[in-house]
Amino acid sequence: MSDIDYELPDPSLKSIVTHDSLKWIFVGGKGGVGKTTSSSSISIQLALNNPDKQYLLISTDPAHNLSDAFGEKFNKDARKISGMNNLSCMEIDPTSTLQDLTQSNGDPSDPLQNMMGDITSSIPGIDEALSFMEVIKHIKKSQKKDGESNDIEYDTIIFDTAPTGHTLRFLQLPQTFSKLLAKFDEITSKFGGLLNNLGGGKQDIYAKVTELKELTKLINEQFTDPELTTFVVVCIAEFLSLYESERLIQELNEYGIDVNTIIINQLLFTQNDDPCKRCQSRSKVQNKYLDQMDELYEDFHLVKVPLVNTEVRGLEKLTKFSKFLVNPYIPGNSVDLD
Amino acid sequence: MVELTEAEKRKQLRERRAAKIKNGTSRLSKITGEHQGLEEVQPEEVKPADSIPDVLTSNTNVSNKKNNRISQSFDDPEVEDIAQYLASTRTKPSNFKGRTQLPHPNANEADEFTKALNQIIGNHQKDHSIDDADIPNPFGNGNQFDIFSQLLSGTGATGAGTNSLPDFSSLLQTGFTNGENLPGFGGDGDDFTYNQQLAEYNKSLNDKFKAQWLLFKLIFNFVLVLLFKLEENFILDSIYSKFGTSILFLKSFIAFEIIFTTIYALRLFKISDNFYNYDFQILTYLEFLPPNILPNSIKSKIRLAIRYFELVKFILFDISVVIVLNLLWNFVA
Lengths: 338, 333
Known about the structure:
The complex is a heterodimer of chains A (338) and B (333).
Chain A: H1 14-17, E1 24-29, H2 35-49, E2 55-59, H3 66-70, E3 79-80, E4 87-91, H4 94-104, H5 111-121, H6 126-143, E5 156-160, H7 164-198, H8 205-223, E6 229-236, H9 239-255, E7 259-267, H10 277-296, E8 301-306, H11 315-326
Parallel strand pairs in A: 1-5, 1-6, 2-4, 2-5, 6-7, 7-8
Antiparallel strand pairs in A: 3-4
Helix pairs in contact in A: 2-11, 4-5, 6-7, 7-8, 7-9
Chain B: H1 6-21, H2 24-32, H3 52-58, H4 83-87, H5 109-127, H6 146-153, H7 168-172, H8 189-230, H9 246-268, H10 282-286, H11 296-332
């Protein structure tokens, strides 16, 4: 197809909302650009447009905001959002997850066990590791035959991720684990019997490692399959955000993770006759970066979202806000969510 | 025109994006404003090498401050002929800040080295208040540092008596393993002082290593006991299995003890007896007993037994640490 026939990608999230095969959607970017609001809005639009499917919104950010965004409390167990039948939410909490693990395998009243739980929960990367465990759990659930599990099986899982660095570390985990497990595989194939004896003979270490290796490989394949996984980058029209977003996109490209949509948030769209000089000035700066983005990301779905007049909190406001993602905003239209 | 499916459109867009993202550095440069555009440089636009400085200096976007670096503020030093340093044995160049004088170019290699050593180590001789003339020199040259020069020149040790220094090749070996070359009590001269100081220095090094080793074993045993006591899974329960019974702990403890003791033994058996604090005076007294009273074979067996006992002490230390930790655990839990 020649460039003459090439049409610019639609500046909305419709491609994601109508993409039936997507299983994993990551929403990430620099801190404070509106990831939580965007991920919540994407989840709401998915749920509204596909009422027959089940969706799960997971927060992997240690500084969780989903409860604040929706105005109701979520925890490590997935729970449906009030007012939505097909959208659930969970916030991964490393401390309580580890406590559950230790208490299910030992004496709950043991003070040293709790201490070890506290220590382990502060290990760098523990949040990413636990999020990854969650992914593994869902993969395993989907592999089970019908009727074997009473839990809800989700068609698509949306991740409200931590700021860029943590998310990149999380996305590296499948590859890192694969390499680690390959090395472990070599060791267990030589010393499997000895390791089983040291393990007390209760569990077959080799079988467990093999299972984990297969799961990690599957996750790796799924994360790098653009028909199953996509990453939505959220940014604002400022230098730091743009620079970090570009580096994020390049890193994701190296990992083989598809990025086709960028949400540019908090845009002023100041009109020429607007008397506010500060707004004019800020808008001028934003327009400069918007022009750069239009040039850099001409093959991406660039969703330009206005800065609204109020905080976007609660299901009602998030639902109204989410419409900006699927219907491109026309400058001059109302941004009043009330 | 054939209508593309959604999947084909997505694939087409992906390919276009991938092709553009490959040019990552220039994209980032565009954002930071160092380049004017994203156009790739065509081969015919590459200028020849001798015009590159013109391109760089004519780039008005490059800050002038980058050219005014401190490293570029000074002229190159004047070229000086090294022969002027070698021609004079005593005079120093005006800007020469060396601490030693360079040897005469016509002196032989041994003399050069001797003189350099004199300059470096000469102060120590004075600190010890030992006059050169009072030191009995096994090599008979009247200067103790000629020992080194003769060793290096390969003459070896030719002195008489038990106080003669071993030759250089034996110094390279693992040391005075049988104690025969050690100066005994009442040994005279600076050789004995030197050897004594060498032994003390090595003992302090080995003591330090021993202390570090004990600390490492203490921490290791502490962690091992905790792990087995807590009986917990780590981050992924599918990877780690439960730890457990006292038999399992015993197996692990014995396995690690064997490994660590072997490592330490390999090191210990390479160290000379004189260079290690064994906490037994018997080793010193063994030297006084002539072979008529106590044969050398028995002496060497005694030394060996002491070394093994040193290893046993480490094992006893670990066992006591484990017992104490278990008692503490039972008290706290």
